[in-house]
Automatic annotation (TrEMBL), chain A:
<feature type="domain" description="Electron transfer flavoprotein alpha/beta-subunit N-terminal">
    <location>
        <begin position="23"/>
        <end position="211"/>
    </location>
</feature>
<keyword id="KW-0813">Transport</keyword>
<dbReference type="InterPro" id="IPR033948">
    <property type="entry name" value="ETF_beta_N"/>
</dbReference>
<keyword id="KW-0249">Electron transport</keyword>
<protein>
    <recommendedName>
        <fullName>Electron transfer flavoprotein subunit beta</fullName>
    </recommendedName>
</protein>
<dbReference type="InterPro" id="IPR014730">
    <property type="entry name" value="ETF_a/b_N"/>
</dbReference>
<dbReference type="InterPro" id="IPR012255">
    <property type="entry name" value="ETF_b"/>
</dbReference>
<dbReference type="Pfam" id="PF01012">
    <property type="entry name" value="ETF"/>
</dbReference>
<dbReference type="InterPro" id="IPR014729">
    <property type="entry name" value="Rossmann-like_a/b/a_fold"/>
</dbReference>
UniProtKB/TrEMBL annotation, chain B:
<dbReference type="InterPro" id="IPR014730">
    <property type="entry name" value="ETF_a/b_N"/>
</dbReference>
<keyword id="KW-0813">Transport</keyword>
<comment type="similarity">
    <text>Belongs to the ETF alpha-subunit/FixB family.</text>
</comment>
<keyword id="KW-0249">Electron transport</keyword>
<feature type="domain" description="Electron transfer flavoprotein alpha/beta-subunit N-terminal">
    <location>
        <begin position="3"/>
        <end position="194"/>
    </location>
</feature>
<dbReference type="InterPro" id="IPR014731">
    <property type="entry name" value="ETF_asu_C"/>
</dbReference>
<dbReference type="Pfam" id="PF01012">
    <property type="entry name" value="ETF"/>
</dbReference>
<dbReference type="InterPro" id="IPR001308">
    <property type="entry name" value="ETF_a/FixB"/>
</dbReference>
<dbReference type="Pfam" id="PF00766">
    <property type="entry name" value="ETF_alpha"/>
</dbReference>
Length: 247, 319
């Protein structure tokens, strides 16, 4: 059993969002970088749990990014995982990134590819589906549970107002959402071990990007809150009805 | 050249997000001077010709029991076939759970640039530029699609449903359908409940409610408003509420017309999932709660006192 977990680097959830270069670039000054929470808490931890259950399982990590992604991939290795790949490329185009991941995945003949549900900066929820298509694997998105029985996976995914459980034979690509696993904190042993785990850097395969960012912007600020006294809920209802037209 | 819209159905019923996608696609077709057509897979229980009132002239229907459940791989192949034979240059999906499974696959299959999470019609004055949410709703990006065929996945509640006159011609589309590799074995649906991602009104509560036994008043309020219920992350983590109610940066992102937050402090990670709501009402006993800065209306007060009164007041005007 070989698992590939896709790890991306995102700004810390409290990072101040601002743009530079005439609103064409994210302002990274003072930003702390973290592993995208969906990749870390759900995809990676679930993969490690599968390895803990079956010691013959191999967990590899992949990130597409510059050298500045290495602290993130080392932290992911500290949580678990046997070795990591970094494809040396910086891109915001989902298809470009997915093509790099698919190329690594093909070479390693993985049974299972985990991604996070989405990156919290780009919010694409796209890369898993694209990788699946490029590999011609089935794809289950927004999975909240993943169980393995031999080469058959039982996967629960979120649907509107409920859940759906399906069976699929490996190989498969799965995007991981809340419910898959619980967040873990790396321990000292893991951190020490991660220092010597292999991190292989490779150059990207040639692919054309399909999209490009032309500019960023911030939503208009709220006008400010209108407070209503607690003993006058009728006034709130009136405002919602007549002024905000929300009722 | 035409605009093709994927019409997502559940148990035979056309989802509201699909009506939004149809309205959006029809408007876009008008903007491009072309026609809008829809594609339906599986077994609908509604009259498909009636979808014409959202602005589409034709519905391609692929009927096959293998398509009654989502297998993204099968769906992608079939939609690619329909898109090819109709000469679609723009394909619109709702950016809901199913859309998120299919649109990226189709993008990779057709080498067609995808914008997922679009919130407005494209700017086609110079190229093809689509506005989408990024940084979990804290910002937006304008992204240019540079390929001949383009795919847009439209965020729920980002575009209004437009109804007019008209009926669509319904044409059976014969597609080659492989046997599914994904076998659905069960599904649970919370009956009578409004799905969170489709809800126009959402009533949400946090740790300020002290325990799961106090959610009765939240559900009452949701009921009179025909609203979905949501919660903050610690509430879901403590299993006071099911995890699919957790909204925020690491939960579900929503954009209802009205979001009522009760006993939620308004941490930045919570706001990330709800700040695109059109109107935000905050009920919190602490006047310093950060949520008031992101709110349109607020009451500083005890939820246990305010919420039942609010429910009554709304019941009165709804009557
Ligand atoms: C990486 C990361 C990701 C996260 N993702 C999310 C996410 O997706 N969603 C999310 O919600 N959180 C998320 N969090 C957690 C977030 O930081 C907050 O801790 C959380 O939102 C707080 O939940 P709360 O407002 O319910 O509880 P609290 O912060 O405890 O706030 C309770 C509020 O209730 C008020 N209150 C108490 N009693 C009453 C009463 N009787 N009447 C009225 N008001 C009362 C208090 O004044 C207080 O403001 C994340 C955190 C991290 C680090
Ligand atoms: N640069 C990257 N390198 C490796 N994996 C990535 C990268 N970007 C995104 N992913 C994976 O794809 C998932 C979905 O990303 P997105 O489609 O951008 O929302 C993430 O949760 C990651 O698991």
């Amino acid at each position: 059993m070989k698992i590939l977990v896709c790890i991306s680097k995102t700004p810390d959830t409290t990072a101040k969002i601002a743009f530079t270069d005439n609103n064409t670039k994210f302002d990274t000054s003072g930003v702390q970088w973290i592993i995208n929470p969906y990749d870390e808490w759900y995809a990676l931890v679930r993969a490690i749990e599968l390895k803990e259950k079956d010691a013959s399982t191999i967990v590899h990590l992949v990130t597409v990014g510059g050298a500045d992604a290495e602290p993130i991939i080392r932290k992911a290795l500290a949580l678990g995982g046997d070795e990591a790949f970094r494809v040396n490329a910086d891109s915001h185009d989902s298809f470009y990134i997915a093509s790099q991941i698919a190329s690594i995945a093909k070479e390693g003949a993985y049974d299972l590819v985990f991604t996070g549900k989405e990156t919290i900066d780009y919010n694409g929820s796209s890369i898993g589906g694209m990788v699946a298509e490029l590999l011609d694997f089935p794809y289950i998105s927004l999975a909240s549970k993943f169980e393995l029985n031999g080469t058959k996976a039982t996967i629960t995914r979120e649907i509107e107002g409920g859940e759906e459980t399906a069976e699929v034979d490996l190989p498969v690509v799965v995007s991981a959402a809340k419910g898959m696993a619980e967040q873990r904190i790396p321990n000292m042993r893991g951190i020490m071990a991660a220092r010597t785990k292999p991190l292989k850097v490779s150059e990207p395969v040639a692919v054309e990007a399909l999209t490009s960012v032309t500019s960023f912007g911030l939503p208009p600020a709220k006008a400010g809150v209108k407070l209503v006294p607690a003993d006058n809920v009728d006034e709130l209802v009136r405002l919602l009805h007549e002024e905000a037209k929300a009722l | 050249m035409s605009v093709l819209i994927f019409v997502d159905i559940a148990e035979g019923q056309v989802k509201k997000v699909s009506l939004e996608a149809l309205s959006y696609g029809a408007k876009l077709a008008e903007q491009l001077g072309t026609s809008a057509e829809g594609v339906v897979l599986g077994t609908p229980k509604e009259d498909l010709a009636a979808l014409g009132k959202y602005g589409v002239s034709k519905i391609h229907h692929v009927s096959n029991p293998a398509l009654d459940h989502l297998d993204a791989q099968l769906y992608t192949k079939v939609i690619a076939e329909v898109a090819g034979s109709t000469g679609a240059t723009v394909i619109v999906f709702p950016n809901n759970m199913d859309g998120k499974s299919i649109a990226p696959r189709l993008s990779a299959r057709l080498k067609a640039g995808l914008i997922s999470g679009a919130v407005a019609l494209p700017d086609t004055s110079n190229g093809f530029i689509v506005k989408k949410n990024v940084f979990s709703g804290k910002a937006f990006a304008n992204i240019s699609i540079t390929t001949p065929v383009k795919i847009i996945a439209l965020n729920p509640n980002a575009y209004p449903v437009r109804t007019g006159e008209g009926t669509a011609t319904v044409a059976a589309f014969e597609a080659k359908v492989d046997s599914p590799r994904v076998k659905v074995i069960s599904s649970t649906k919370a009956s009578g409940e409004v799905p969170l991602t489709e809800a126009e009104v959402v009533v949400s509560a946090g740790r300020g409610l002290k325990g799961p036994e106090n959610w009765g008043m939240v559900e009452e309020l949701a009921k009179v408003l025909h609203a979905a219920t949501a919660c903050s992350r610690p509430v879901a983590d403590a299993h006071w509420r099911p995890h699919n109610e957790h909204v925020g940066q690491t939960g579900i992102a929503i954009a209802p017309n009205l979001y009522i937050a009760i006993g939620i402090s308004g941490a930045i990670q919570h706001l990330a999932g709800v700040n695109r709501s059109k109107v935000i009402v905050v009920i919190n006993k602490d006047p310093e709660a950060p949520f008031f800065k992101a709110a349109d209306y607020g009451i500083v007060g005890d939820a246990f006192d305010v919420v039942p009164k609010l429910t009554e007041a709304i019941r009165k005007i709804k009557a």
